[in-house]
Write the structure tokens for this entry.
Amino acid sequence: MSLENIQEESAAERHPAALEERVHWAGGASKPQSNVVAFKFGGSSLLGADRMLHAAGLVLAARRASSVTVVVSAMKGLTDHLLSIARALADGRLAPARREAELVLDTHLDVLHDLQLSAPDDLRVRRELQLLGRDLLHEVPARGSVAAGAELFDRLASFGERFSARLFAAALEKSGVSAVPVTSSDFVLTCDTFRDAQPHLEQTKQRGREVLLPLLEAGIVPVVTGFIGATPDGRITTLGRNSSDFSGAIIAHVVDADELVIWTDVDGIFTANPHESAEARLLHELSYDEARALAASGAKVLHAKVLPLAAETRMVVWVRNTFNPQARGTRIGLPRVRQHPATAPMQKSQHGGAA
Ligand code: ASP
Ligand code: MG
């Protein structure tokens, strides 16, 4: 693979469909909603009320052109925190575990406070968070003994995404976007290998469509928890650490999204770690195979299971920077017809102002 050529491809760049404004559409109920995009937000994009509202603004903008399904990670650091609580339980350190679990609830209540919702909305979301907190605390008793196996680790870890989905749905509502939180364990069916569960894609797709399509048809943005699923008998599983990119691809597949946008905190995929190497260059355009080769060579690209699923379903994956949404990001998809620059001298200027 020649990275130089990939870089050159930016001449023919196209922006994510969701961000291309349909300028001729005048608004109203008959808004065309033919295409669906899935947006996955990572934990740093959701860390605190300001970032959630900023991310909500990206969804608001995309909705002008598309139906949007959102998949969220836990707020950054929360999964680590929850797993440390599970470890404390396993070690019999119940009282500190309990205090830490209370802190997890408080952290999310603080974000709710900072969202500054209207009084009725604040009350409603506060109740939702408190119910979740009650379930969390139920897992973390102050006394007695706890069977702390892999199952409990997954149940505890699942709370991060369950809290963030509720908060992000509230941030969307505050931004004028109708949204509801959806817990993916309601339809993402997995095997019972806790902490590394494999999804059953076909059944997940069938069940997921029943949950998500009516919402999309009603113009409501589903805010789906990444990372978690459930066994056929309803026990919560997780798809492994950092798997919410993979959840994003699964959910995109469920709703037949044309594009999955992974919103993260760097401008896209680089030839090397941009924080460590001045030589690192942003890659604008990658085929599935090129992206897979990069990942195999050790580059931090995406969760390993995203690319096979995206390639199989022909879904375009974008990696974009939540904090620099002007940047186009990296597009991974079927290679587009490459024209030699000499045969298409006008290409750059023709496309240059299209954003
Ligand atoms: N919250 C999960 C983790 O930290 C999943 C993810 O963020 O991708 O592993
Ligand atoms: Mg991540």
